[in-house]
């Protein structure tokens, strides 16, 4: 009889975007690359999900209804454990946002090529995540 080791936990990535095509596409591609994915349509929904289970990394759009990505990032940082979660903010119109006071780790201009996103996720994920 062999002893099977428990499955290694997959890093959890929270994708926040009000465009369902983006969340669905990123979720599918990231799951194919071994990540566990949670999605949200705006910052307030993402904040609720992060309060239930803190993700290992967040990819968030900047412009969304209810709560934008910059406000979500600030609120995430105030949660227990949220201060160290890497956050990638994305926007097709960076000139519309004041990112100077934001606590995100990386900004990517849309459209974001998946290969680049995957490289940045690997770079930003904490060791052991």
TrEMBL record:
Gene3D superfamilies, sorted: 3.40.50.2300
InterPro entries (UniProt xref): Bact_response_regulator (IPR050595), CheY-like_superfamily (IPR011006), Sig_transdc_resp-reg_receiver (IPR001789)
Keyword Phosphoprotein: yes
Response regulatory domain location: 12-125
Keyword Phosphoprotein: yes
Modification sites for 4-aspartylphosphate: 61
SUPFAM superfamilies in alphabetical order: CheY-like (SSF52172)
The entry's keywords: Phosphoprotein
Cross-referenced PROSITE patterns: RESPONSE_REGULATORY
Protein name listed in UniProt: Response regulator
């Amino acid at each position: 009889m062999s002893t099977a080791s428990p499955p290694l936990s997959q890093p959890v990535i929270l994708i926040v975007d009000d465009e369902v095509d983006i969340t669905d596409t990123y979720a599918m591609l990231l799951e194919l690359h071994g990540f566990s994915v949670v999605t949200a349509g705006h910052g307030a929904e993402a904040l609720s999900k992060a309060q239930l289970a803190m993700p290992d990394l967040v990819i968030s759009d900047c412009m969304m209804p209810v709560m934008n990505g910059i406000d979500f990032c600030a609120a995430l940082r105030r949660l227990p454990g949220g201060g160290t979660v890497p956050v990638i903010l994305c926007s097709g119109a960076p000139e519309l946002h004041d990112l100077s006071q934001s606590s995100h780790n990386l900004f990517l201009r849309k459209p974001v090529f998946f290969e680049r996103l995957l490289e940045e996720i690997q770079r930003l994920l904490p060791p052991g995540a």
